[in-house]
Amino acid sequence: MIPIAIIVIIWLIAVAVFLLFAGLSIMQMLKFGIKHPITKWSIIIFMIASTAIVVGTLLFLSQMNLQSGLDFQPIYESIFVI
Amino acid sequence: MIDISQLPGLLPNEKLVKVYRRHPLTLFGLYVGMLITFIIPVSVYLLIRGMNIEFFSSEAGLIVFILFISAFLLFALLFIFQQFLDYWLDIWILTTRRIINIEHTGLFTRVRSEVRLYRVQDVTSELHGFLSHVFNYGMVYAQTAGETLRFVFEDVPDPKEVAKIILQLCERDQRTHEQEITKDKEPAYYKQPIQ
Questions:
Q1: Cβ separation B60–A68 shorter than 8 A
Q2: Does a structural domain hold residue A13?
Q3: Is A76 within a domain?
Q4: What is the mean pLDDT of each run of 10 residues along chain B (195 residues)?
Q5: pTM, whole model, 2 decimals?
Q6: How many domains are there within chain A?
Q7: In this structure, is residue A30 part of a structural domain?
Q8: d(CA B78, CA B63)
Q9: What is the ipTM of this complex?
Q10: Domain presence at residue A4
């Protein structure tokens, strides 16, 4: 039985790594991208889409019971036993 | 647009002619990637429902699934953005006096090279492949004197026209350069005002 909180922490680490690389990419775009509406809008769309995914997931998590645990027995049975 | 005064080593009477990028169709892999990014989560969800796995009907299983899909979408989005960044930041700037190529490879590698137009001796345009012919994009090679390396415009739209513009500008810059050299070679007393 794996606590769901651990899986949430792993997801948060993944989000932190994503934010690091996203920040670096945006910085590169702002620094070297020429003055053009596409430069600006590509950054805006990327930020909106990323924020929507992160916020959507957090909203979903806020409605769930994170105290529960993950049991691999049912998946094992459904795939291998049946 | 690019402010030419921001470019290093601005030459006298230098004006911006055009900024070239690869043809948008060269981003075809990116478009396919975007499509797959949206198809994968939906198809995985439908597959799981179809298999009727008990694991995913539990709350914990659903959380794991959503977190996995969320992380997948985030990194797919980052990959797509970086591919676009690579496309958008690779440019060829054609001015009345030189060609400047700025190439962005990876997140921290940026190569800037330039060639003076009077040094260009031969310009070749090349259309290679079916898509290249249909959508009229291809390579333009600018060969400089005494160098084996060629200056390459990769997959630019309308390569024939680009080559023509470069050749016209080269001829003009060669004349300007010759005039500049002649001026410099004049003896100093010629330059002094007559009293």
A1: yes
A2: no
A3: yes
A4: 71 85 87 84 82 72 88 92 91 91 84 88 89 91 74 91 93 87 66 59
A5: 0.79
A6: 1
A7: yes
A8: 23
A9: 0.86
A10: no
Residue among A11, A53, A78 whose CB faces B54 most closely = A78
Partner residue opposite A15 with nearest CB, options B74, B84, B89: B74
Please give the average per-residue pLDDT across A50-74, as a whole number: 85
Start-to-end CA span in chain B (Å): 48
Lowest average pLDDT, out of A9-13, A23-27, A73-77, B106-110, goes to A73-77
| Residues of chain A with C-beta less than 8 angstroms from the C-beta of B3 | 35
CB atoms within 10 A of CB B118: 22
Check: CB of residue B156 under 8 Å from CB of residue B134. no
Alpha-carbon A30 to chain mean position: 23
Which residue type does B152 have?
A: V
A40-67 average pLDDT score: 92
- Tell me which residue range forms the domain holding A36: 22-81
